[in-house]
Every structure is written in C-alpha cells, then in structure tokens.
Design goal:
It is built from 3 helices and 10 strands. With 143 residues, the protein is α+β, with helices and mostly antiparallel strands. The strands form 3 sheets. It has a 4-stranded mixed beta sheet with strand order 1-6-8-2, with helices on both faces. A 4-stranded antiparallel beta sheet has the order 7-5-9-10. Strands 3-4 form a two-stranded antiparallel ribbon. Pfam families: MoaE.
C-alpha cells in the first residue's frame, strides 16, 4: 500500500528514500520539489527570464480530498508491482525547503522514473493543493 501524507513538518528525504529500498527493486525514481527564489517566468524570452522573487510560499489543501486524489494517482503504479511514496508539505515554506517528495521503487528503472513523472504531472492538475507565493507586498495564488 502506498505511503501518502500531507504534513506541516519538513520532509525527511533520506528517510523516505530508505523506505523505498528493498531487495526486489532494482530501480528507484525520486522527485523532490523545492521552493525556488523566483515566482514568475517570462516564457516568451529565452531561458525563462526572472520577473518576480519569492520570499516564501504557503501551501493549503482540501486535505481529505487531496489524500483521496493522491491515492488514486498511486494506485495504477502500485498495481504494476511498484512501491509508491508521496509526501507533500502544507503550511509556510521558505526558499529551498522541500515541498514534495515522490518516490517509486520498481524492478526496473524505466517504470520507476515514468511513475514519478506521471504522479507529479497529475498531482499539479488534479490534487486540491494550492500555493500562495509571497513577494514583498504581492501575493500570487496557483497550483
């Protein structure tokens, strides 16, 4: 069964990675999302020019629904015999704090890496977790 959690505490990346290790798995894919110091990108310019700097982020969630949706994301990947861990922080996060940990352990690397990619892409689209990015006096809401 997948390990799914929303938490206010810092994410223990090494501890979660250790939970993925097992003799039957030869590939472990991990995605760790951190808070960066910029808010917006000018996607029209080359290299995504910085337009605003982030002081901090506050994550909020409809927690019961978020857990339900995260379990839905993990289920098909687990059904292929993989181990899945998804942990997302909520509350106040500073620049460089870890916001999300996604780990998939599989027999082979391809499934592990594809599983991580699939989860993070769908998480951003379907899971009711929102972020308020604060830059001085400016607040921006997003997913």
């Amino acid at each position: 069964m997948a390990y799914i959690k929303l938490q206010n505490e810092p994410i223990d990346v090494a501890g979660l990675y250790a939970q993925l290790k097992s003799p039957e798995y030869g590939g472990i894919g991990v995605f760790v999302g951190t808070i960066r110091n910029l808010t917006d990108f000018d996607e029209e310019s080359k290299g995504g020019a910085r337009t605003e700097y982030t002081d901090f982020i506050e994550y909020t969630a409809y927690e019961a629904m978020a857990i339900k949706e995260l379990k839905k994301l993990a289920a098909p990947i687990e059904m292929m015999g993989n181990r899945v861990i998804i942990v997302h922080r909520i509350g106040h996060l500073e620049v460089e704090d870890e916001a999300v940990f996604i780990g998939v352990a599989s027999v082979h690397r391809k499934q592990a890496l594809e599983g991580c990619h699939q989860i993070i892409d769908q998480l951003k689209k379907t899971v009711p977790i929102w972020k308020k990015e604060v830059d001085g006096d400016t607040e921006r809401w997003g997913k």
